[in-house]
Amino acid sequence: MKLKALILLFFLTYFNLNAAETISIAASPVPHAQILEQIKPELEKQGYKLEIKEFTDYVLPNLAVNANEIDANFFQHEPYLKEFNNIKKTKLVKVATIHIEPMAVYSKKYKDFNNIKEGIKIAIPNDPTNESRALDLIGKTGLVSFKDSALKTPLDIIDNPKKIKFIELKAAQLPRALSDVDFAVINSNYALSAGLNPLKDSVLIEDKNNPYANIIVVKEGNENNPKIKALIQALQSDKIKQFILEKYNGSIIPAF
């Protein structure tokens, strides 16, 4: 019996030591989860199993990482992260920059902003940083002007001769609202999920040189965890850079 117990203990110890360590990461389905799928084989070679948990909102992924329920997340840009930390009193930090998703304006009724009717409706994201980002994009058309503000809202409008009405919605709802408004300013991850290509289907697209690169985020104190280092190395590789360029045809751009 002692021999059998020793043999059983040996096998349990051996397989436990050689079991792959799990890296859990929260991500938006497109393009974040798609990109993460590409690094699974590389991480497996290093003894890590990548577990991707898909979310379709911008709040739960941060709360889960802050609670140490998930190791990292990949869905947001740094201005959003800073605002989230400030409002929710979370302790989340950026550890890597991966890609840029230019925000764009879409319409089923107009091909551009020329000859628009008075009182048109434009749907925009309702979270502070993306709302301000969307209004900056509309402001570049000259149709609306705003007072100087770090985070713009429709309350900051100082000139609106066309009496444009801004409809504030959750970012994930914007593609579905496109038929009910004249224009919608949509984050690229939600646009791509809805079959919209920012380069081909938009009437206006954000400049690629902007501070809104998408990042990997962890709980403060976990920045130097070996599995986080392995995750970053796998993502910031030539293979992933090439995948992004070929898969998304310029609508998403590597930022590393």
From TrEMBL:
Q: Where is the signal peptide?
A: 1-19
Q: Which family does the record claim for this protein?
A: Belongs to the NlpA lipoprotein family.
Task: State the UniProt keywords alphabetically.
Answer: Lipoprotein, Membrane, Palmitate, Signal
- Identify the InterPro entries for this entry: Lipoprotein_NlpA (IPR004872)
Q: Where in the cell is it found?
A: Membrane
List, alphabetically, the CDD domains matched. Answer: PBP2_lipoprotein_Tp32
A single Gene Ontology CC annotation of this entry is:
membrane
**Protein name (database record):** MetQ/NlpA family ABC transporter substrate-binding protein
